[in-house]
DNA sequence: CTTATTTGACCCGG
DNA sequence: CCGGGTCAAATAAG
C-alpha cells in the first residue's frame, strides 16, 4: 500500500505530467490528438494538486480525524423551533486549517463549492465568504473554505481551507490521468509548473461534465479595482498565470523526485515565471499552515 | 419546476 | 457582550 507521501507524490507527478502535456499542446496544438480536452487537462492539474495538498496536510495526523463528533454531544436540548444542535460543533475548534492560499484572484481549485454565508470581519474592509463542498450532503464531505479579499491595490484574495474532501468527485479524472500518464510518462522534466486560471470554457468543451467553479460574485468582485481586473480577463486573455515552482527541497523527507536534471526548454516561460514569482513573493504565497 | 445564492438571525466561545 | 461561523427562509437564477 502507499504511504500518504507516496500518494501525494503520485498526485503531484500526475499533475506535473498533465501540466507538461497542456503546455506542449499550447505550443503545438497539432501534436496531440487525444480526445482529452484542454479543459480536462487543466482540471486534472488542479485536482491533482488539491489532492496532494489535502493528503500532505492530513498525513501528519495519526489518523483520519474527521471533525465528526456529532455523537459526542450528549443529549441535544429540545428545541422546537430551530434545532441548531448538531452542526455547531463542527467549527474551528475541531477542524484544523489545512492550508491557505493568497492569490491575485480567487481561482478555480477543481472542486465544486457552495456558498453558505458571508460576513463582514472586524478591521477588514472586505467581507468573508464561506463555502462548503457541494457534495457535503451526498458524500458527507466536510471540506470547507473561507475566502476573503485581504488587499486591494493589487487585489489579493485569501482562501483558507478546512477539513478535506471525502467525496469522490473523480468522475472522469481517472480517465484523464491514465491518458496523460500513457502519453507523457517520460517526457523531459521541467521544474516549472504553470497553469492559468479562469479555466472557463463553460460553453465549449464541457464534454466531460466536470463540476464548474462556483460563481462568486457580488460581494467581492464589486470593487472597482477588481472590476477592471475582471474586464481584462474577460475574453481570451488568460491573464494572471498562476505560477509555482515545484520546489523539491520543500518536500522534506525520504523520497526525492526521480529526475533532478532539468530541461530548460522553455526560456520564454521563465520570464513569465520570474515576473510572477516576484509579485507572488510579495503576497507571501503558498503559506501552508500545516504544522 | 429545481437548484444555488443572499442575507439577517442565531449560536457559541472568548 | 462581541465577533466569527453557520443556518435557513427568501430570493434569484437556470
List the helices and strands and how they pair.
Elements: H1 4-27, H2 38-58, E1 97-103, E2 113-120, E3 127-133, E4 144-152, E5 155-162, H3 173-184, E6 192-196, H4 218-221, H5 224-233, E7 241-245, H6 267-283
Antiparallel strand pairs: 1-5, 2-3, 3-4, 4-5, 6-7
This protein binds a DNA duplex (14 and 14 nucleotides) through strand 2 and strand 3.
Name a few traits of the molecule.
globular; alpha+beta; 7 strands; 291 residues; 6 helices; 5-stranded antiparallel beta sheet; single chain; 17% strand; 30% helix; DNA-binding; two-stranded antiparallel sheet
Structure overview:
The protein has helices at residues 4-27, 38-58, 173-184, 218-221, 224-233, 267-283, and strands at residues 97-103, 113-120, 127-133, 144-152, 155-162, 192-196, 241-245. The protein has 291 residues and is α+β, with helices and mostly antiparallel strands. The protein has one domain. β2 (113-120) and β3 (127-133) form a beta hairpin. The protein is globular. The two termini are 25 Å apart. Residues 61-83, 85-94 and 169-291 have low confidence and may be disordered. The protein binds a DNA duplex (14 and 14 nucleotides) through β2 and β3.
Brief summary of the model shown:
The protein has helices at 4-27, 38-58, 173-184, 218-221, 224-233, 267-283, and strands at residues 97-103, 113-120, 127-133, 144-152, 155-162, 192-196, 241-245. By secondary structure, it is an alpha+beta fold. It has one domain.
Number of helices: 6
How much of the sequence lies in strands comes to 15-25%
The largest sheet is:
5 strands, antiparallel
Annotation, overall tally of beta strands: 7
- The helix content, as a percent range, equals 25-40%
Uncertain stretches = 61-83, 85-94, 169-291
**Rg of Cα set:** 20 Å
Mean pLDDT: 56
Query: Termini separation (Å)?
Result: 25 Å
Number of domains: 1
- Shape category: globular
The helix/strand series, from N terminus to C terminus, equals HHEEEEEHEHHEH
Amino acid at each position: 500500500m502507499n504511504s500518504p507521501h507516496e500518494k501525494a507524490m503520485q498526485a503531484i507527478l500526475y499533475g506535473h505530467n498533465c501540466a507538461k502535456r497542456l503546455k506542449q499542446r499550447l505550443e503545438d496544438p497539432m501534436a496531440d490528438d487525444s480526445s482529452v480536452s484542454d479543459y480536462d487537462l487543466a482540471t486534472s492539474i488542479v485536482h491533482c494538486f488539491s489532492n496532494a495538498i489535502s493528503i500532505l496536510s492530513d498525513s501528519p495526523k495519526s489518523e483520519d480525524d474527521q471533525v465528526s463528533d456529532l455523537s459526542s454531544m450528549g443529549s441535544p436540548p429540545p428545541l422546537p423551533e430551530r434545532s441548531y444542535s448538531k452542526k455547531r460543533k463542527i467549527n474551528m475548534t475541531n477542524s484544523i486549517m489545512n492550508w491557505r492560499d493568497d492569490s491575485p484572484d480567487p481561482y478555480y481549485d477543481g472542486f465544486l463549492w457552495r456558498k453558505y454565508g458571508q460576513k463582514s470581519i472586524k478591521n477588514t474592509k472586505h467581507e468573508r465568504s464561506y463555502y462548503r463542498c457541494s457534495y457535503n450532503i451526498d458524500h458527507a464531505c466536510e471540506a470547507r473554505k473561507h475566502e476573503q479579499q485581504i488587499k486591494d491595490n493589487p487585489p489579493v484574495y485569501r482562501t483558507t481551507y478546512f477539513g478535506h474532501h471525502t467525496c469522490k468527485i473523480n468522475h472522469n479524472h481517472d480517465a484523464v490521468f491514465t491518458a496523460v500518464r500513457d502519453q507523457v510518462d517520460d517526457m523531459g522534466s521541467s521544474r516549472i509548473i504553470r497553469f492559468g486560471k479562469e479555466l472557463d470554457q463553460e460553453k465549449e468543451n464541457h464534454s466531460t461534465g466536470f463540476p464548474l467553479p462556483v460563481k462568486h460574485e457580488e460581494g467581492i468582485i464589486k470593487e472597482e479595482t477588481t472590476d477592471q481586473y475582471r474586464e481584462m480577463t474577460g475574453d481570451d486573455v488568460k491573464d494572471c498565470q498562476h505560477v509555482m515552482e515545484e520546489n523539491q527541497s520543500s518536500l522534506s523527507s525520504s523520497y526525492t523526485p526521480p529526475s533532478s536534471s532539468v530541461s530548460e526548454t522553455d526560456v520564454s516561460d521563465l520570464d513569465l515565471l520570474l515576473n510572477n514569482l516576484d509579485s507572488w513573493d510579495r503576497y507571501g504565497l503558498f503559506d501552508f499552515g500545516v504544522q
